[in-house]
Amino acid sequence: MKKTTVLLLAGGLTAASACTTTQKDTTATGMTTETTAAAAEEVQLNYPETKKVDHVDDYHGTKVADPYRWLETHTEEVDSWIQAQNEVTQSYLGDINFRDNIKSRLTEIWNYPKYGAPFKKAGKYYFYKNDGLQNQSVLYVQETLESEPKVFFDPNKLSSDGTVALTAFAFSKDGKYVAVGTSSGGSDWNTYQVMDAATGKMLNDKLEWVKFSGPSWYKDGFFYSRYDAPTEGNKLANKNEYHKVYYHKVGTPQSQDQLIYEDKAHALRNFYGQTTNDERFLILNASEGASGANALFYKDLADPKSTIKPIVDNFENEYNVVDNFGDKLLVMTNKNAPRYRLVLIDPKKPQEANWKTVVPESQNVIRGISTVGGRIIVTYMKDAASQVVVYDQSGKQLNTVELPTLGTVSGFSGDQKDKETFFTFTSFTYPPTIYRYDVPSNKVSLFRKTEVNVDTEAYETKQVFYTSKDGTKVPMFIVHKKGLKLDGTNPTYLYAYGGFNISMTPSFSIANMLWLENGGVYAMPNLRGGGEYGEEWHKAGMTPNKQNVFDDFIAAAEYLIDQKYTSSEKLAVAGGSNGGLLVGAFMTQRPELAKVALPAVGVMDMLRFHKFTIGWAWVPEYGSADNAAQFENLYQFSPLHNIKEGAKYPATMVKTADHDDRVVPAHSFKYISELQAKGAPGNPYLIRVDVRAGHGAGKPTSLVIQEWADTYAFIYQNMGVNPYLNQ
To answer: Which of these is catalytic: 577, 624, 638, 673?
Structure first.
């Protein structure tokens, strides 16, 4: 066992006093944050011994050691290593006196009804609801908006521990059947079944090895995408190749499904089939990576002789079919419009010269488009916040939809015949609130307000623009209590992503409210690599420009420190997936800037990520070590390969899950092993491995609450802060 000395907070509450009635009453009015005056005691952490193997790879003449290669495979030895690491981590967390208080408060404020916006199918209204602490949300149905809701489908009955999650739920056009997708333990692998909507009974249909798909109905069956069954042994890590599109007819076995499309010449392409609302067209989206660009194919289902034909046969831009107007396709694209435009394309004459622009590109980025009630409803982003504009079908602007404040909109689902639709609005301190939108009159009315057990009015949100290393102005949202003193002592949680054209927009998190009510600052910058300002902003953070993303994140931390929001001793940096890579790079490049680092399910081995599951799809975003020039770029920032012997890194808790088949946990396993072996003593370097969980989607509420309790306890402990010292 490797021993290291860390500082543990002394003088806090005892675990036995964590859940008293008095504590519950006082936290209801808000908690205080104070730095403990008690002395810190030195405690030794005994890390598990992690064996090293003599393995060296040659990358274009550069020899790179990989001593933890053995952690890439799923073996009993690896399972034992995971158990030993978890024991060390849980022992450390269990000694934090106020962890139970945090979990108690989180459980208390988490316990409120959470609703999804209603949607209409076959004349009935459906909506998702979680009573408060249910592991999975339940789907309800009602005949009218005033009638009594009834449970239509309850995913909580699929498993005793809530680890089987609903991933797809698609009604046939007549509402008779529902295609139901589920995943177990957080895996990306899905199983599809068919349910009789009238009786709620599952039919015998069962489709396996579905991945990166969605059921798209056509008549008495649906299109879906899958891979061949993986080889035995390491199903969670095997490389995914040769994606295929099938058609499944209800009541038949999967072995009889009709192969609709495959590409035997290109193993690393994904294909997603979707049908238009009227089931006139089958649209095939083909992609070579996860950065958004795609080719586009179609089949006219109204013509029995029709074959699959290309509309766009290259992978240079994005094309998203929104709907069809008769025999024309309404397509959202960034072709010659980095912030997107809406065009009408005749698939029989797909040349760009024949496209008709319906909604042109503007200064704001188009984030989403719906066609409801004869209108085109366009959601824009302006500096990462939503705006909604309504057009007629010719592209004439009719009006705007009024929103409550700076925040994020989602919804507006429906059909062309519908006269109403619903949307959800949320912001950092604005719980998700559902509004009804009357399309003909352009009137917005409150449909359902979310009530939470926190005083959301006590906080304020501001947006600042700071300067990155190369002079680029980067926006950042900052949330904190009103009247916060800028004295450099406020615990601050800096969270970001920065990649894959994904936009980070204001949203409500009940977990964040615990941080805020303890006097914490929450900061979220919109780094390059994201989609907040369109494709140009995205490309500015892609290979070979990935360092810009890390520079933006570092500059955000420096801004918060310079402006006295916090100090390096009170700053925690966090991110997940691509954001885990971000935190890992931050740690190796500027370890002195933060006290705590929380890389979750991160891409840490930038030389081998493309060899596992769907990792090859990230090559357009990152580059590949198989390319000499790209290898040099990746090697410079790969978190695993830039940990230095004897350097003091922030207190680190790496988070991953044993069933993550998106970013395989070997990334985190190898990273923490290197950190424990090389990092200077003084701060803990731990890994927290969830069992029966995956990349994050569908995680049960109970596991989410425990993870946040552990996360906040770890942060406060290492900042020398006890949020419950006076209670």
So the answer is: 577
